[in-house]
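About this split. The held-out portion is used to measure sequence recovery: a designer receives only the structure tokens and must propose an amino acid at every position. Recovery is the fraction of positions where the proposal matches the reference. Here is one held-out target exactly as it appears in the evaluation file.
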């Protein structure tokens, strides 16, 4: 037999109101719980959803979960020197971008120029010292990866690209002067594409490290950069 959903009093099927508390029980349905007798559950009661399963942090979340020094350094220092820190990151980014072009010397000039203001400011700012200490490690990583990148990309570029003699012959015949000339053009394009893909593969780790650090600065956080946070470099006042 069903029970009143309000007071639990048993009532006859078809009854509209509970005889004890007067609750409207018209339309209420009874549900049987195995091994626990019969209980009344009002019609239309939604089923209880299972509790969501907690998932652990993802791969990139683990990489970016570095130590936070914001409270130790002070938010005021970070806010006051945020622009200087951004300039320091831009210096390294400029070096990477220009170093991939035929005018690589511009990368060195841009790096040196954009680093002037942060270097002048590091004595009076713990935040700038914190950023510069990490950036110099990251910049050394960029140089190290560039050595391997240049050697390997250069090898494959020379392996795929046409020789000087083939290029001259293609120019004489005309770019569209025949299948051989067209093949020279295709090989030249393919060599450039392969070289750039190798660039991207080798520079993925240092660029990822720099981008995470740059985002932390934008968010006004003094957090360690992935992969290099445990490498300690100290700048004295």
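Reference sequence for scoring:
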């Amino acid at each position: 037999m069903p029970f009143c959903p309000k007071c639990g009093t048993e009532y006859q099927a078809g009854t509209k109101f509970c005889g004890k508390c007067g609750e409207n029980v018209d339309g209420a349905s009874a549900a049987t719980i195995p091994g626990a007798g019969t209980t009344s559950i009002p019609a239309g009661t939604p089923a209880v959803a299972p509790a969501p399963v907690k998932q652990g942090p993802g791969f990139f979340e683990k990489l970016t979960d570095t130590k936070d020094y914001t409270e130790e350094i002070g938010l005021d220092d970070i806010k006051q020197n945020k622009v200087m820190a951004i300039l320091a990151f831009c210096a390294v980014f400029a070096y990477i971008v220009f170093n991939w072009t035929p005018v690589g010397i511009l990368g060195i000039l841009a790096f040196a120029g954009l680093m002037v203001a942060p270097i002048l400011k590091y004595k009076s700012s713990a935040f700038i010292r914190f950023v510069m200490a990490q950036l110099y490690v990251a910049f050394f990583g960029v140089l190290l990866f560039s050595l391997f990148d240049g050697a390997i990309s250069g090898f494959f570029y020379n392996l795929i690209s046409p020789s000087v003699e083939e290029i001259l012959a293609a120019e004489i015949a005309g770019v569209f002067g025949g299948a051989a000339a067209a093949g020279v053009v295709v090989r030249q394009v393919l060599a450039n594409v392969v070289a750039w893909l190798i660039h991207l593969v080798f520079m993925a780790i240092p660029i990822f490290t720099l981008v995470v650090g740059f985002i932390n600065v934008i968010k006004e956080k003094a957090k360690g950069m992935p992969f290099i946070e445990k490498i300690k470099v100290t700048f004295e006042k």
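Annotator remark: The chain is about 55% helix and 5% strand.
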